[in-house]
Structures are given as structure tokens and as C-alpha cells.
Amino acid sequence: xxxxxxxxxxxxxxxxxxxxxxxxxxxxxxxxxxxxxxxxxxxxxxxxxxxxxxxxxxxxxxxxxxxxxxxxxxxxxxxxxxxxxxxxxxxxxxxxxxxxxxxxxxxxxxxxxxxxxxxxxxxxxxxxxxxxxxxxxxxxxxxxxxxxxxxxxxxxxxxxxxxxxxxxxxxxxxxxxxxxxxxxxxxxxxxxxxxxxxxxxxxxxxxxxxxxxxxxxxxxxxxxxxxxxxxxxxxxxxxxxxxxxxxxxxxxxxxxxxxxxxxxxxxxxxxxxxxxxxxxxxxxxxxxxxxxxxxxxxxxxxxxxxxxxxxxxxxxxxxxxxxxxxxxxxxxxxxxxxxxxxxxxxxxxxxxxxxxxxxxxxxxxxxxxxxxxxxxxxxxxxxxxxxxxxxxxxxxxxxxxxxxxxxxxxxxxxxxxxxxxxxxxxxxxxxxxxxxxxxxxxxxxxxxxxxxxxxxxxxxxxxxxxxxxxxxxxxxxxxxxxxxxxxxxxxxxxxxx
Length: 497
Description:
globular
């Protein structure tokens, strides 16, 4: 059955011949019964997992690079461990959030352009994103240069601040690797070329582990060795992916460097900035949870317990980020191909799988609730605090698997600006004040802070579900067409981002 969108841009001859990614030549027919539902569910599940599986593996590998360096830093010395932890979580973590956010604008544009068959625009979009992210890197570099006074300002000890500040200077090359890597990742994701990213990330992790041990411990280079290997690992991924692109495997998507990348930069900046705000507000929200816990009476125990919980949550979120990447590509591809029903159904499928995975993780946590705290701490008081927080952590595992998937829907559809406002309202106008009230005014402690802030996430998730249910997906497909016209330089009505 043909889509009811009548567009000269979005005809079947433009649809890329890729059975896993780009939409079918026709939109899926209306689902009229349970049998139709399960047939289409099976078809969409294969497409989703074709993307999500390698995306999860890639994300875990890249997340593990810093974790491996941090592990070896703990064998170098306590100050070295503290210095790297602070640099990796505060300085690099802050920068990474901004870079990933700025780069996510490319998911919307590349995904929709690919679905519409505007393949030749993907390389130009990637180059525009490079320009914006490298300029962002130049601005963020000042945080690295002045890391020591910044850390002293926020209350870190002098010894840790100076050591972390020195580490930050050594890690400046990683900042620009972020700027190069994330546009490449979105460019490849939009074309379903995710397996090559997983191969490269897996190889990088193996070499990173080997050379980190060699330089940091065997040769005694310490943190300097760790910085060298971490920088090289990130640039290895960038160079390997660029070799893959330049080899001609991307066809029309990469036709070489073009001056067209410098056109319409301001509009691209606005969409990138909206994307960065949307994702950073989510990233910083749970960073604030640990910050607030530091002001409690028994702060050391509270912070240790929360750190263990957020560490577990961090690994689980890697799975959610895989779903986030997969659904953003599915939605953007199908809207670009004028397949609104397929786009809508893909949202249903990803929410079902995200919920199932979240429940499975929560059940595993419940089964091993008496054992897992001892893995992370030998302090009985900390173990008891973690055990007390386990129900909240289990709830977080479910909610924080669904919420990133819905954020991926927002990115695929191009709703970044609207979601940024929703995040501000749910997280910082509602969640934070409620958490502070429960934690401090009502003396519920760390549990109260977390309940309040988790409530903010629940409210945001409910709103995102409501938006997805109420969305006119035919209109979204039409808006995707106009967005493609706008960014490809064709005449058309400008879509408000």
C-alpha cells in the first residue's frame, strides 16, 4: 500500500537497496489483527537488532577504553587513580557529552536523507558536522588547559587537581578525536555500516588493553603511558574508519571533500546545539545526583554507595545507547522514505525490547542483591547502603532502558529542540527540587534525593510516550521531506527545528 505522502523527492526509485535499513519500497500495510502484528513485529525486530547488536558492542568497547586505563591507573598509585578518574569523568566526560550531543544532529539529517535516497548529501553533512565539532573542540580545549584551577574551584584537593590537570593537558588529542569520530559514526550508522565500526572498536580495545599494560606497568610510564595509549586508541578508530570510507565502500555517500560543507552552517549549528542541550541535560542529571549526595551528613558512605549504583547503571546504559542508535536510524530512514506507519511501528518494537531488557536486568539484580555489593566494596556499611538502594537501582534499570530509546526516536524525527525544553522542565524544574526536598527537608537522605530525581525521569518518559502516541506520523514524514529539501539546497518550506 503506497504512502499518502505525494512527493517528487520520495519515490521508490530513490530508496537505497538495503534490506536491513532503508525502508521497504512500500510502507507496511495497516495492522488489522494479532497475526499481522506478530508478522510485522518479527520483520521489524530483525532490522532493529541488525543495528542494535553491533551498536551495543561498539558502545561497550569504546566505554571500556577509559575503564581499562582507569583499572591500570589503580595499579600505578592511589593519586594516579584519583587523577585519571577525575579527568575521565569530569573533564573528558563533560566534553564527551557535548561532542556526542552536537554530533547527534547528524543522525536526523543523514538518516532522513538516506531514507529518501539523497545519498550524495551524507558526506557533505558529515563535513559540516566536522567543522562545527572541531570549532567546539577549540572552545572546549580551554577547559583542558585550565583544568587545575577549575578543579580547585569546585573543591578538589590540591594534589588531585594538579595531577588531573596535567593528565587533562595530555588528553587534548582525545578531545579532537571525539570531534572527528562522532560525525563519522553517525555517517556510517545511517547507511547500516555498523559492523565495520564494531570490528574497529573491538580491535582498538584489544590493542588498548595490551599496550596499556605494557606502557603503564611493564615499562613504568604510569599515567603518561596511559594518556599515550588512550589518545592513540581513539585516533586509531578515527583513521581506520576514514580509510574504510575513502576506500570507496560508501559509494555516492562519499564523493570527496566539498566547499558545500561551509554553506548553511548557522542552521546546522542551531540543530547541533539543540541536540547537545537535549543529551547533556540528560547526562548531567545523574552527575548532579552524586554531587548532591556529597552534601549529606554521612557523605562518604552515601557517595560510595551511589558511585557503585551509577557504575552498574552505566554499563546497563550502554545497552540502552545501542537501542538509541538503532531506533534513531530506523525512524529517520523510514520518515525520509515516506513510510510513516513503518516508523511508528518501529517505535513500538524498540519500546517492547527496551522494557524486556530492563526487566531482565532488574530481575538479575534482585537475584544477586545479597552478593553484588561485596564485589565493589569490602566496607560493610557501604554494602548495606548499596543493598538499601537496590530497589531504586532496579527501577532505574527499567526506566533508563526505555528513556534512551525514546530519546533516539526524538533524534530520528528531529525533535531535539522540543525535547530539550521537556528535559529542563522534568529534570531541573521538577525532579531536582523534589529530590532536594525529600533528601534534605524531609531527611530521607540519599534515597530521597534519588526518588525525587527518578520521578523526574519517569515523568519525562511518560511525556515522551504520550508524544509518540499522539504524533501524526504522516505529518512527520512530510516534515522530513521538507527538511531534506532545506538541507540539500532545494526549494521548499523551511521546517522549524
